Fold this sequence. Notes:
Chain B is of the alpha/beta class. Chain B has seven helices and eight strands. In chain B, a hairpin with a 5-residue loop joins strand 3 and strand 4. In chain B, helix 2 packs across helix 7. Chain C has one domain: Protein Transport Mog1p, Chain A, CATH 3.40.1000. Chain C is 21% helix and 34% strand. In chain C, strand 5 and strand 6 form a beta hairpin. The longest helix of chain C is centred in the first third of the chain and has 15 residues.
Amino acid sequence: MKALLKLLSASLAxxxxxxxxxAAQASGSAQKYQPINDDERTLWRTMDExxxxxxxxxxxxxxxxxxxxxxxxxxxxxxxxKCSAVRIYILRTPQFNAAMAPNGMMVVWSGLxxxxxxxxxxxxxxxxxxxxxxxxxxxxxxxxxxxKTDAIAxxxxxxxxxxxxxxxxxxxxxxxxxxxxxxxxxxxxSLVNGGYDPQxxxxxxxxxxxxxxxxxASGKIKFDGDIQTxxxxxxxxxxERLEYxxxxxxxxxxxxxxxxxxxxxxxxxxxxxxxxDDQIKLNDFGGSEFLIKSLxxxxxxxASYHAMAELFRYRAKDGDYALAAKYYRHAVxxxxxxAESWRGLGLSLMRTANRPEGIKAIRKYLELxxxxxxxxxxxxxxxxxx
Amino acid sequence: MIGSKMRWLMLLLLGMQLPQLAVAQRxxxxxxxxxxxxxxxxxxxxxxxxVFPPDSEVSETNAAGMALPDAKATDAxxxxxxxxxxxxxxxxxAKWVVIEPKAAEALxxxxxQRALFQLVVDAAIRHRLFATEPLPSKxxxxxxxxxxxxxxxxxxxxxxxxxxxxxxxxxxxxxKTAMQALATALGNRAExxxxxxxxxxxxxxxxxxxxxxxxLKMSPxxxxxxxxxxxxxxxxxxxxxxxxxxxx
Amino acid sequence: MKFxxxxxxxxxxxxxxxxxxxxxxxxxxxxxxxxxxxxxxxVPNMEWNRSTASSAKFGETWTADGVALNELTFFAAVExxxxxxxxxxxxxxxxxxxxxxxxxxxxxxxxxxxNRLLLDTPVFTIEKVEADRLSGYPAVRFSYRYAxxxxxxxRRGEAVGAIANGKLYLVNFVAPxxxxxxHYLPSVRKLFGSVKLLDTKTETDD
Lengths: 386, 248, 206
């Protein structure tokens, strides 16, 4: 599906399925966005087939409340009429991404919801993708790709042509810088139209840049000063982007704009533990630590302490179990009903040669969650020891 | 095991190498089928066979080996295949119960069963039919199963067997044809598009795959009536007969 | 640019390498057989096929009908600081490592994290975790299910693992939930029960 997300932006498909256009979210006013020629019909058909598949995807988060909420944020930014042309699919995928296909299918990764901190930031990304759709950027790209891939194959016949192939290849699968800028500017305008604070458009990039730095510091990725990741390598350089987004926001801003932070936090509360857990298990210590701390803000919740503790316990370097135990203790002090924190505390203490205390914590876990999937094993482990 | 971007890259590069790989493949046979030992339909009333919507796709391959789906031709192919099946007189012992795509959507877990069927066919091709990686335990009786889940379709179709059809067709674009002309001039053998497919018959009650026919080089023009007729004969070559010899 | 170099290498490899496949050998039913460089001995009650190649770094892979339909993997004597699977050739996802002082409940966690990275999916859930014995050693038996992007079929699995003399031994079975998992599970459990760890000294006190 990640490959496909790339492909959505590139608008070429290898994916095959039985065609079943999504009816659930379709609507009459979507008529405005219809294929206008054979090239576009091919694109739509391909994406319709992919959409038929995505509705069966094991990664799909079908929860109506969450879907309605994400949709409401897009609709507020682009307006109800345009919004009705879009069908949103939320996929449980921990990385930061969203994409929109030329047939009106928008795919949002859970990693995006983990990283945006308010409605305005979420609206920024959704409106940006919508702009690519509205401006038919995929179609332009599609024609470009077809021309270029033909060129790639021809170059393959030239001795030493492989280098040229690669040069072309990296330019094939992305929107152009101009397209990205156009989508950026339209997104800022959408924010203002929807009553959202347009400065959020640059804030999300600042935040993401900081996450990448943190991730690089722990050795997960190479950080090259400017943004060069898989999914955003085609986008304008992040510093340039921060600059023009911010300038554009200053130009357009008006009184009584909001970020929608409270509503966003309320809507995400139920989902964050799952999204954070998926992030932690990516084995990206620096990035995960950055995100957990960012989510925790100034007033740490039990869940935030728990997440930090898990992060250290999973890394398991020298001294990490002691740190994990410390954070688990904070977690259960903040919220004694956090059964998983008692479990983690117990295991961490046992690994730091504090078996008696560890056994006590495990017992507390078993008391809170007698039906836990691993209850039998842990009960067996702590036995009748005191 | 490989990062998504790399997988994507490799797919593309693999696509570019397809002409070479195709040449290498020539050494192998291009058509194989297998049947459960001694399998024959019972005589008497024609046996009811549910025909799941064909999983067919027609595309155009550009010079880089990238397949771009052709929506019109794909739709035409799916319709033409079913029409050929219903009018072909070679299967008097079969009563085809054609499941329309709309009705298929209502069948429980058909998408998953189809996905399992494809895994099974892939295993049968690799480990038995074409035996690029023969599995010692699979060289005796032809035996692969889709499980008891298939019996869920008996009630809706009142059928005894289910027929899956899969086809993939790709024409060469003008650019690709021109490139191949050059390749031929340079001494490589050129391929004229790709036309492959398979058909498999499943006992709905037990879920056992009783017959499978795979053809890697089929006739082109699936979307026309004559092309579909020819293709259907190729897909159903070796289709089981009755124990009185009907259908042979 | 590193990216270009890797791509070059792939092209070169594709042009030069003839397709090479794993080779499968017969595993007869009801006979004791040594697997994974003679580190484990089992008595299967059905016919299997054993591969000359394996996804496990220290181990061996078996299948009955094809690895996509059912796969049995023996991880034998994984040592302190090692990963369950081969780390990716490229990319930065480092697989978690085994530590010899791990507690039994941490074995399913190691397995889960390794597979999430290997399979590139967040949809991986450990279901039941129980105490068991493996060749006399205290062991953990756990079941799980997962799904991967672009594949409609959910997979289910069951594994049993133990740490003997500071090394990890784990036997894992995985198959599509549809039909194959339950079909072979009884035989697989019998096989788990027949596991003998060779090449370990006498059991130390737990």
